Amino acid sequence: MKRFFLLTLLSGILLLxxxxxxxxxxxxxxxxxxxxxxxxxxxxxxxxxxQLLHSIETSLPGGHKGFxxxxxxxxxxxxxxxxxxxxxxGLVLFDAAYDGRVTVKRAVAPFDAENFARGLVRDIRxxxxxxxxxxxxxxxxxxxxxxxxxxxxxxxIVDVITRVDGNWEIxxxxxxxxxxRTVKGLRPGDFPGISKRIELTAAGLSRYVLVMDLxxxxxxxx
Length: 222
Fold this sequence. Notes:
Order of helices and strands: HEHEEEEEHEEEEEEE
Number of strands: 13
CATH architecture: Clam
């Protein structure tokens, strides 16, 4: 009897885990709503070339917190990135570029850790670049939020979720359909696709949180 109870309990837990790890269902919207939803999803990402300055609060495993400045130059035309991390006083701690491959120009410990540059560029691309040309699914979640579901070049599934108040959310799932990144755009800014606050949460054992407050957004010539 006791063994039967344990097996039943384990089966219930397994079913719960499987249910929680699946993708939320995207309910189809009407034909007239589809273009509007896609347009709202595309509006999450800035178009053209921009120079963005953020103050960044980092929360790392073990309760460690830090504050840095981040200067990022992005281009949606050729999907290039230049990112510089500085101290509050302006000392450059990290400088890298991406044009299809990552090139590190300067890295001071602890920003010289292996794979840091690639991970940072992946986060920047997730935040600022549309994950695909055409979404695989377009519709609404159970709570009514408009959603576009993409499959990115790395094989991840990415949900872009928009809300009527102008705030948005990006959820990135791995091949096992587990959420590995969540990005929230809060307080719409003065330019399309550029929020005044962005919160990125990376899941897993090395979980970290970045809270990025916009200091300045400057459009650059293509």
